[in-house]
């Protein structure tokens, strides 16, 4: 059975705790990073933890992934999302990897601040996997040994400024504004047997109560094991690092089909992007100040339930 952990502030101090039925049991010790917390605490020891408890209303929630961890992301990793992003699923035969700035990591209940230069703010619910150990060389990760490399799972929303990401061809810049990476509320620590049920997780995102995205993790194109195998051969990974596994279809972004893109590619650069922005301006799905975005990830029977992430969209003050 999974065990749920929260990172929070209580009376000004950052702490970690085990949460059961809305009641938090603080975990002894000070851990500055998610990696340090995972290296010092086993799921077996945490499951036996007891002592004075706190209510959820008594604490200020923090992200269970701290800002000093790598924020790695997979793009276009569900077939239907590839199509709506203007990609040909049969032609794209590679795992798209990018990063978000660590400073965009925010608590699950944070307001998302839309910068004044951003007009097309999009949502992307994703399952995040938190790594269990440091990896300094290429590893062969399989579905059978995935539990040796992954500690647990979190909800991630990969908020994206499409008018920067697409015309400027800047994934990092368009997705890394402060508050654009809320994580949590919980870090769900997984037992080895729990990994067999990851495919059953359903991702659901609503805006003002209306469902925009809904899919199951089993529909990933590149799964966690093959992705970690590829990434470990490229660069070092650290305990506590975050791998966000991609978003389902249903985003606000609208992109022409591959055939139309080939025609548009022949246009002068200025005209091409003018057309793109005109198309996006007709999309009412883009987020506006006052919108409430809720993200949920759970199995149908609730045996794995990562909680609810709730964000209000606000405009930047300056």
Describe the structure.
The strands form 4 sheets. Strands 1, 2, 3, 4, 5, 6, 7, 11, 12, 15 and 18 form an 11-stranded mixed beta sheet that branches. A 5-stranded mixed beta sheet has the order 9-20-19-16-17, with no helix packed on it. Strand 19 (292-298) and strand 20 (305-315) form a beta hairpin. The chain has helices at residues 34-40, 43-47, 79-84, 162-165, 171-175, 224-232, 258-264, 269-281; strands spanning 3-10, 13-20, 23-26, 54-55, 60-62, 71-75, 96-99, 105-107, 112-114, 121-122, 125-131, 150-157, 160-161, 181-183, 187-189, 202-207, 210-216, 242-244, 292-298, 305-315. The longest helix is centred in the C-terminal third of the chain and has 13 residues, at 269-281. Helices cover 18% and strands 31% of the residues. With 318 residues, it is of the alpha+beta class. It is built from 8 helices and 20 strands.
